[in-house]
Design goal:
Length: 130
C-alpha cells in the first residue's frame, strides 16, 4: 500500500512538473484525467513530451503544442488511437501510421471541449487497447 501511495505522489509530481507554466493546459488536462478515471484499468505515464494513457497498449496521449511549436496553438492536444478513420471534422489531423491503425489529433481549447462525442471516442480507444 505504501508503494502505491508513493507511486501516486510521484505521478502527481511528474504531472505538476509537466504542466509547470501552462496553467490553462493543466485545467483542461484535469478535466481529461477526470473523464479517464471511468476507464479502468488505465496506467498513466509522464514523459518529457506527453502524458500517455494505456491499457495493454497506449490509447491516448495529451501534449502541449506550445512547448514545441511556434505561433498560436491550442492549449492541449488529445491524441487517440482508433482502428478506424473517424470522419468528424473536429479532428485537427488523422494519420494512418500503419495499416488499420489511425491516430486522431484533437485540439482542446477548454474543458468544455470534452463532450459526449469525445468521451465516446476515448471509450472506443480504451476498449481497443485491451
Amino acid at each position: 500500500m505504501a508503494s502505491l501511495r508513493s507511486r501516486a505522489a510521484e505521478l502527481a509530481m511528474d504531472i505538476e512538473a509537466f504542466f509547470h507554466g501552462y496553467e490553462h493546459s493543466r485545467q483542461i488536462f484535469d478535466a481529461l484525467a477526470q473523464a479517464i478515471q471511468g476507464l479502468q484499468p488505465t496506467t498513466i505515464t509522464v514523459s518529457k513530451s506527453q502524458v500517455a494513457f494505456r491499457r495493454r497498449r497506449p490509447y491516448a496521449w495529451a501534449w502541449i503544442p506550445g512547448k514545441y511549436l511556434r505561433g498560436e496553438h491550442a492549449p492541449l492536444v488529445l491524441t487517440l488511437a482508433l482502428r478506424r478513420r473517424d470522419p468528424s471534422p473536429r479532428w485537427k489531423e488523422v494519420v494512418e501510421p500503419r495499416p488499420g491503425r489511425f491516430t486522431h489529433h484533437l485540439e482542446l481549447h477548454s474543458p468544455g471541449d470534452l463532450d459526449g462525442e469525445v468521451l465516446d471516442w476515448m471509450h472506443e480507444a480504451w476498449s481497443e487497447a485491451g
